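Hi R.,

As promised, here are both runs. First protein below:
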Amino acid sequence: MNKLSGFLYTGAQIGKIERRAADIAGLDSWTLMQRAGQCAFQLLQAKWPDARSMTVWCGTGNNWGDGYVVAGLAAQAGWAVEVIALGEPTTESARQALKAATQQSIRVDPALTASGPRGAVLVDALLGTGLTRSPEGNFRAAIQCMNEQARPVISLDLPSGLNSDSGDTPGAAVSSDLTVTFVGMKPGLRTGRGPDLCGSVVFDRLGLPPEAYDDIQSIACLIDGNDVARSLPPRSAGLHKGGAGHLLVLGGAQGMSGAARICAAGAFGVGAGMVTLATHPSHATIANIEMPELMVQAVEARSSLARLFSGKRVLVVGPGLGRGTWGGDLFAACLEQTMPRVIDADALNRLAEEPVTGSDWVLTPHPGEAARLLDCSIPEVEADRPAAVIEIQKRYGGVCVLKGVGTLVAVTDGRLWLCDRGNPGMASAGMGDLLAGVIGGLLAQGLSVGEAACAGVWLHARAGDIAAGEYPRGLVARNLLEPLRRLVNRSSVVDDY
């Protein structure tokens, strides 16, 4: 895979890259369009080798031109091809593509036909980058028609109806089996609705020179497993448990002990030397029955916490904290500390109620908690996940992890990282608590807040994929512990399972 596939660019940035390529190497839009069409047709043939017919839906821009190039190549190869054109080309390169395609005697319909598409493969070349509103009229009807067919769909650059920058779908969107994206990877393919709509994603930079990408800062980068492996500190022969870090978990209100214990297990799973749980007295005596390595301290009130903070390297607060007075007292005590902290679950809800900033903490909201931190709705968060996580980081400081499909990490230097691992089986109770413990355990071993957040998110998601295997339904948090242990003990490439 080209290394540029790890950088995510907005539609506007893609436009700048293409213009620079034209200046540097003379690569005009028509040349890029021909290369894109050739790449897409080759991939289409490889994925569906028995297909000999296609229907291509074309819009009006350069994405439209890519579709006509694919149609022309298929006709040259002897395929039966029809094109449904929803408008006239608006760019010179798209007009060139139309002229070249019409020389192949391709059937072109100006709108949707009553009989429906005839092709064995459907090609989506309707809408490209720059979508900001719901598709309407014939565009909406075309998208719905494609989705209703029991035939494979390939999308050129991105599924029509998907916002390339945010992963939002303001209206109807194509559900593809294969998406071939060009020049640069787009964040919308990896977060929000993107992963559900794109099917398999293949990236091709179309031969653009590396210089075309210079000085254009990508909006985000994918977290790489090799970088994660390199960030984990080596362990000397003489390492002792204190050197591996002592972590304190604050949580487990009355009747809510499970979350805090899962959090502690996550910290142990990635190598923390010692973990202490400060929890409600009602279950303190049984909290470590299944985890005798865990030290447990009953906390009746805030006043009993002072001695527990001493000697700890990291603090995790929130799992099972609850919304009562007991949890409020523990959270207030947490805010007074200067050690690195992970703020999770109910601690995030309390932070939303009484906003403060911090430089040494990791916030781990899911979309609901993010909405409360931003005083907005969950749909508003999901409509632009990159913007939401960046805004939370700006308001509250430190590092913010926005959980969900394509988990995002906004770090202190303004960079944005995206994790493209994980699976639907991880939508079960305790997964977030485990992640908080994983990040805390890495902090305890000396990683910075940014390193711990990125590494923790990737390790947690990758462990989830390994644990799920072919059977993601029924996955629970404790299933991730053994894969986590294996992953953190690999010294180089950790992504080869």
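And here is the second one, sequence first, then its structure tokens:
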Amino acid sequence: MQLIFDPSVSPIYRGVLAFFFVINIALAFIIVFLDRDRRDATATWAWLFLLFVVPILGFVIYIFFGRAVRKKREQGFHHNQIDDVKERMKTQLSDATNKINHSDNRIVKKHADIVNTLLTKEPTFLSYDNNVDIYTDGHALFDQMKEDLRNAKSYIHLEYYVLKLDKLGSEIVDILQQKAEEGLEVKILYDAVGSKTVYKSKFKKFQEAGGQVEAFFQAKIPLINFRLNNRNHRKILVIDGMTGYVGGFNIGDEYLGLDENFGYWRDTHLRVKGDGVDALQLSFIHDWNSQSHREQLEFNNKYFPDNAKQGGDVPMQIALSAPSDNWHQIEFGYMKMIMNAKESIYMHSPYFIPDKGYINALRIAAKAGVDVRLIIPNKPDHIFVYWATITSVAQLIRDGVKVYTYENGFIHSKMMIIDDEVASVGSSNMDIRSFELNFEINAFMYDENIVKELKAAFIEDMKVSEELTEERYEQRSNWIKFKQSIAKLASPIL
């Protein structure tokens, strides 16, 4: 401030300082009083601190990372939803609601409060007839996925956060191109930030064959994307309305364990047959219509065929979250699972930076005698996020939560199971970014056999993990303590 009025300082330099001082004041006013979508006071103070400690850099960082997705924009998403499908989903929602508390399914009846907590959006209707296959290895997953793609008869809708055009990605795109040449409707939606090395121009042959491709939150200016902080982190594949995929795996060679920096890639993904596929399809249509200005998907019977009778009996809900949602569907679903647990809570999360309430819920569960276990990576994928994760689990360890670091490569799975009865698998990490900033999707399942299979995989993971004890945590160096302190300060805006 003093430099602005110091006559010995260059007028140009003083002018630049004055400009950014005014900009900072204006941004502070916007953040505090006008940004109604700002999530909480902690994040607000973090941004104000950054703006005034490093004015110019703070301004640039806020422009790229700090702006929230406006309600108006989200309303723009909603008006593109298919009315006929919305009515169908509302009917299913109503039917499900009436049946929940008096369900013939023991687990659904027991955990009706979880089901009702999630019943806030059309895609979250409860379906009872799903056939679910679980994949924890990338090779097995993508072998099956490629086979299903080759067998597609009508259409393919693919939406991924990361789509790399390496060996695996190119192989999948080649299959999609072939299906487009056969006359199928093939659509690709990728995240512009997550798939930063991918451009529409690289899909020229695919588009010439009749395929369509869109980028989520495409940069308005080349190489400058002002939506870095709001990412479509969903992984959705729908084939013919009969088969769907959802989970944590992205598309690229590293997810086959071919990246030396990460080694073996441990993740969890689901292959779904049944009415749950309709929810995945509705989510894709919603996201596609929000980004495509050339073709809006209208109601078509082929998108929602009679897919219920495929030999499944797994009750399932598909939960969604978005940056402008006041009701954080996936986060609250996780929280309700924690609150309902009486015997055990098993979790995977590569990035674990939830808010204080989430941490306290796990602490309370552990103190109440619930067996609470969490597996996190032993190596950083994103350095600040990793050290913030270690800081977040420290309090849990002290209160009896058993935390393990995965030593067999990199664990990217996002999973929670409780009491051998309820499971959640999807794209959402247990951190503020996934809960409040990203577009995410999770499947909540109420089935003993599904949970048994996921628990068995978790037990196998523990065999190649090391427990993070208080003693091990306290042995960290001063340099690590410093990095943790910085990560803790930055965690509200990570």
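A quick note on the second one: The chain is about 45% helix and 20% strand. Let me know what you think.

Best,
J.
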